[in-house]
């Protein structure tokens, strides 16, 4: 019986390993092709392991051309400022919802949950934003996605998992609710803040829909909007040096991917705790 069980587990591990290897290749091979083509100054389509004519002119075209680096700066600006604002709103909102003695706490919690199921729709939302004079401004892509109820609920669940004795001790020591929030809650929530912050940052960085719906001024487009135009060939910028159009397209794709590839290893240590936000309570 033990031999059969051991053999069974060995087969499972082999099959499981093969599946993950195949999945890894499905992800790695296209990325490697894009990376190689971003350095290849020779116009040649097809799969290559190494560039036939190595050069950095594709990246020079991205960072030296105003039509490309201006949208890139807008992407960085909106991602950094939007993520910071979203974390402030979400953490403070979640902290308010764990105040059990607050009048109307249940009403506000249910009201927020209601918005996760029902919303006004695309046209009413556009009309509201236009009446607030937010359309065709950079503020609409910063303020509008700044509150994600799902992320707020995750943070609330995590805050509820903090031992109540810590809140009682802070109150006995004379801490105000804001001091408790800053000195107790936030330092103990690094894993949750890192995970939720990454969710917001990826959403801001990859945002395309809000720009498409609410902004018509091309000077306010982010890099994702510009990248689509470049890939589709409708707005191809001037190339620098010996770079070809294909080289510039692939270099632009790598520029979009690389920030979070660099950021991920620094946040990886928090992911195990982050995915279990609110799962363990006292």
What does this 3D model show about the protein?
- By secondary structure, the protein is mainly α.
- It has a domain at 65-236: MetI-like (MetI-like fold, Orthogonal Bundle).
- It contains 13 helices and no strands.
- The protein has helices at residues 2-39, 57-64, 66-97, 105-117, 122-131, 140-143, 149-160, 164-172, 177-185, 190-205, 209-214, 223-232, 245-274.
- The longest helix is centred in the first third of the chain and has 38 residues, at 2-39.
- It is globular, with a radius of gyration of 24 Å.
- The mean pLDDT is 83.
Features:
282 residues; mainly alpha; MetI-like fold; 13 helices; globular
List the helices and strands and how they pair.
Elements: H1 2-39, H2 57-64, H3 66-97, H4 105-117, H5 122-131, H6 140-143, H7 149-160, H8 164-172, H9 177-185, H10 190-205, H11 209-214, H12 223-232, H13 245-274
Helix pairs in contact: 1-13, 2-13, 3-7, 3-10, 3-12, 7-10, 10-13, 12-13
């Amino acid at each position: 019986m033990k031999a059969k069980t051991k053999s069974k587990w060995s087969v499972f591990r082999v099959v499981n390993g093969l599946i993950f290897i195949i999945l890894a290749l499905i992800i790695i091979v296209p990325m490697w092709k894009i990376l190689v083509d971003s350095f290849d100054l020779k116009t040649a389509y097809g799969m290559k392991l190494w560039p036939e004519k190595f050069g950095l002119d594709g990246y020079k075209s991205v960072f030296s051309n105003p039509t490309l680096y201006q949208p890139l700066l807008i992407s960085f600006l909106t991602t950094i400022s939007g993520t910071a604002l979203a974390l402030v709103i979400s953490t403070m909102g979640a902290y308010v919802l764990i105040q059990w003695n607050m009048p109307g706490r249940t009403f506000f919690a249910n009201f927020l949950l209601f918005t996760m199921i029902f919303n006004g729709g695309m046209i009413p939302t556009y009309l509201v934003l236009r009446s607030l004079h937010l359309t065709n401004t950079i503020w609409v892509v910063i303020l509008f996605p700044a509150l994600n109820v799902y992320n707020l609920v995750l943070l609330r669940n995590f805050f509820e998992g903090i031992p109540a004795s810590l809140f009682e001790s802070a109150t006995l020591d004379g801490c105000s609710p804001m001091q408790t929030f800053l000195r107790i809650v936030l330092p103990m929530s690094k894993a949750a803040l890192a995970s939720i912050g990454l969710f917001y940052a990826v959403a801001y960085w990859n945002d395309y829909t809000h720009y498409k719906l609410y902004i018509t001024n091309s000077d306010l487009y982010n890099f994702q909007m510009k990248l689509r135009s470049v890939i589709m060939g409708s707005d191809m910028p001037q190339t620098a040096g010996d770079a070809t159009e294909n080289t510039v397209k692939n270099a632009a794709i790598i520029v979009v991917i690389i920030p979070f590839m660099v950021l991920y290893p620094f946040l990886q240590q928090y992911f195990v705790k982050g995915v279990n936000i609110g799962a363990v309570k006292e």
